[in-house]
Each structure stands twice: as structure tokens, then as C-alpha cells.
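Inputs:
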Amino acid sequence: MSTVRLDRVSKHFGSTVAVDDFDIEVADGEFLTLLGPSGCGKTTTLRMIAGLVEPSGGRILFDDQDVTWLPPRRRNIGFVFQTPALFPHLSVADNVAFGLSVKGQKKVAIAERVEEMLSMVGLAGYGGRLPNQLSGGQQQRVALARVLATDPRVLLFDEPLSALDKNLRDTLKYSILALQRRTGKTAVYVTHDQSEAFAISDRIVVMNNGRIEQIGTQTDIYLHPATSYVAEFIGANNGLRGTITGRDGEGDDARWLIEASGRTIRGADRPGLVVGQTVVAYIRPEDIEIVDDTAPERFANVIEGTIDRVIFEGPIAQVRVDVDGRELRVDVSGNERLTLMRRDGRVRLGFDEVTVIPAPA
Amino acid sequence: MNALATGSRPVLRVSRRRLVDLVGHAYVWLVLIVFVLPFLTLLVYSFTGPGGSYAVENFQYVLGSFGDNLSWSFRVSAVTLVINLAVALPAAYAIVRYPFPGKGLLYSLMTLPLYVPGAVIGISLVLVYNFTYHLTTSVWGLVFAMAMGTFPLMLTPIVVALKDLPVAFEEAAECLGATRWQTFWRVVFPLIGPGVSAGLMLCFVIVFNEYLVTLFVHPPSVTTAPLRVFNLVRTAGLAPTTAALAVTMQLISFAAILLFFRVFGTRYLKGTYLI
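Outputs:
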């Protein structure tokens, strides 16, 4: 258990910059997730923490120990790969024992530890099997047991669930979190999946082009995206481009007034904007409601549009609404989604002022 | 009408398929006979005694006078395999896992002996042994020649197996605290086992049966089995005892290949260990 600090770490591959001036401090026992699209540098960052990639600049510290130039085997880390990477010629027990056996521990002690680890991941009694006799999810749990057996200082995860099917992903991500909590180990987790990151992290680092876009908790990122990139990446797909025309209210009630294609929208307050600035007002599909003419005054913002099509996805129905030539996506849940299938023509859309996130264009 | 028309069709189709089957089988058998016939002829001839009688004694001759030649062939093969493996393993690892300038050229040079005629290798080695290494009277000269000629056959399957092996296994081992040496022997080597054994088999079959380069570089005291066959054919003509030695060599080569497929054939695929 230890803290992990990256101090101005960067990585260049030839002329491409994979990671640029990366600064982060992971607290002892914290679960930190690097979130971003493929090619954003999150995996490279993780591999630099592991020592599998040498940084072009900067320092990496575990507690106060500079590990920047230590090979992986001297860092005492637990790395879980995208594929389980279990040694196919060794039994499950020998796989879990590998880290202890290369360090020359006694056979009896190893066997005991292997049993303990296998029952911790819920695979007691599977020790005699070969990896390819297990399912993908079981293999990944053996991989977890294998890294935990060596009692590492830091756990590193490189999209460990991306090769599994959806149901398995959902259960296994909570297993990973539970194991991390139980062992109290510092963890750095890499994923491109927002819901995965939200489900298990203490803090999330949103990355883009080798840089940090935002560091924060789930609610920080969800409610106050720092940049338009973050807003779009975490699913605020509806962006209305407009100009700030004024400001209304004080303190917690302060709102920006944004004029977008002839109508004024009231948006949440956020620092750093000025009147006259061009912004994109982001509204999440799940924050927009289809309002009947009965009570439109519930919402500060009501706009009209025409239904293009309705896509029924099961738990939600996706409604594409044409608002003056711009398509807005509205996610409808509950009973309403079932009746929507027969709707077309004009609708009124209502959304709260605090759900409108203005971001510099 | 319709039913009749569709009913008559399959009959025609089946008979055409049978015809194709017949021709196909005939072709395969013909090819087999062409390939196997020379060996069968040799086999029958090796059992022929004086005056056309049946003679197993020819094979006793193999164990007696030829024993020494077979033993040389085995010893030269064994040492050659050890040398080839010791050089090919690190070479293949470097070629596949590390980027370095001139890699393509180096690999091409290493596989060059495959494309050089045996006689050319023989002549150049004779020159080199005479003027540089002074190896003309040592069996090591022969071993070195065999190693050089068959090295690509050892290297290439190992390179292919390593290329097929995902780096994640090595990275996982290193992250678990294994040294490079431990990673290689505990993870990489078992997983490229099929490539290694394929290389060993190819090298063995070639070295054990090699005669052309041997003719150039063998020291006077050493006569391998294939060389003895060649010498006998030249001096005594095609005697049934010579055929017996040839058959024995052929059987040893067969045995090596059978052993290979018996041990590895069903358990390995594509160079990666799958079980």
C-alpha cells in the first residue's frame, strides 16, 4: 500500500506525443480511474507506472521512492491485463503461485497462500485446472488472484473487462472494487467505458490527447464538466451553439442566458464565461422531458420540435427531435416510453436550467 | 411434372459426384505409388540374398560393420542440435522482441545457408578450414559445417513461434517479479516448445542424412552412415547390404518424424501451446 505520484511525466513515440506533462497524485488506498477514448494515452500512462514503458520525461514515485527507472519486477505491482494472460501451460494453482515461486518462497507457504487467494476470488478448488478449462470471467478472476498473491503495493488494471460480455462485466467490476476495498490497495484503473469508471472509482481522470481534461469525482465530472470535450465524452450529446446574452440572479440562483437560434435558454452558472462569448450549451438526453401542454411551466426552458424517429431500446426509448434543423436526442424511461412508439408530429421539450451546461465553444 | 423433374436431377448429380470421387482417389493413389515405390523397391532389395533368396543377414551386417558409421551420424547430429539450439534461442528472441538497426539484413544472412548449394558450402568450408581454422582433421569441422548448414532450419520455426506468442505473457511474468532469465525458462521456452521441437526435428533429419557437405569436410577417420552408403555404391556397386543400410537410415528418419507428431502433433497448434 502506498501513494503513487506522477510528476510531469511524458512519453513520446518518435514525433507523436502519447502522454504530455502528466501530473497526478493517487492517495493511499484510493481507486483512481483513467478514462478516455482509445489513443488518449491512458494505457501508456498505466504502463509507465508499471515500468513496462519508459517515460521520456518526468518522475514516478511510490510513496517517496523514485521508481522511474526500476524494472517492473522491482516495483512490486500487480498488473491485470486486457486478456487474462494466464500462463497456458501452468495449472491455475501454479499461475497464482508464480509470483511467489520466482521469489523463491517455500512450497508449503506458497500452497497456503494460493488456497487463500483462490477462495478470495471465489474459485476455491479450481487450482488443479488448466486456464483454458475456465470461462473468460473465471480466468480474469484467477489473474486477480495471481497479482494479489504477491501482496503488491499498487494494483494496475488495463481494461480488464473489455474482452468479457456485458453481464459478466457488470458483476466482475464490483468484484474488483470489493477486492480492492478489502485489501486496501491503491489502484489505478484504465477504461474507455464511462459507466464502468463511474461505478467503481473514487476519482476519475478524463484524458484526451495525452493530457488531463479533468480530475474529479463522478458528480464533479457529470454535473460540472470542465471542458466541452468532457461534456461530450460523458454523454451530454445535445449541444446547442449560441451566444451569452446576459446573467440573471445571484449566488446559487445565478444563471447564464444563452441565445441559440432565436430562442433564449437559461443555463447553469459556471465561472470563466463572459457576456458576448460564444458557447455550446450541453443538455443530456436523460435530462430532457417530453412535456404535454398541460404543465410546461414546470420547466424554465421549453422548446418545440418535430419527432423524427423513436428508437425503442428496452429500458429507454430514444427520441430524435428536430429543433429548427438541429437534432436533439431525448431519452425517455418509464411507462411513457411505451406509448411514445405511436407518437409523431410536434412535441414540446422541457429541461431544467441547472441541467444546461454552458461550455466555451 | 415438376416433382418428376426435380426427382430425376439428384440421380444425375450423385453419379457425377461419384465419378469425381473416383478420379480423385485414383489421382491420390497414383501420387502415393510414385512416391512410395522407390522406397518399397529398396526395402525388397535389402532383403535379397545371393541368388535371389531371402536374407535377413543383410541387416546383421548393418549392426556390425555399419554400427560405427551410424554411431558417428548420431553423435554428429546430437552435438549439432545442441549447438544450433544454443545459438538459435537467443538469436530468435533478439530478432523478434528487440528493434535494432540491420535486423532484416541479419535475419537474411542467418537464413542464407538455406539458399546456398551444398557443394558451394563444402568448397568454401574446405578453403576456410585449410587456411584459417585448421580444422581439416577434426570432427568439429564436420559438426561446425552441419550446424552452419542447418541453422536456418532451427532458427525459423523458433522465430515463428515467438512471433505468435503474445508479449503479455512475458509482461505478466515480469510484473509478478520474475527476472528475465526466469521469464524465459519458465514462460517463454515452454510456450515456444512446438517451434523448438520442429526445429530439432528438421535439423536432425537433415544432419543425420547429409552426405554432400560431409564429403568435403569429413576428417579421414570419420565416416558417417550416408557417406558410407555413397562410398559403397561407388566402390562395390549396389549391393543388398548397402540397401539394408539405406533402409535403416530411412527408418530412423521416419521414427524421428513419427516421434515428433506422436509427442507434439495433437497437443500443439500453430507454434503456440494450446493443449
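Remarks. The interface with chain A takes residues 166, 168-169, 171-179, 182, 186-187, 190-191, 273-275 of chain B (CB under 8 Å). Strands of chain B lie at 268-269, 272-273.
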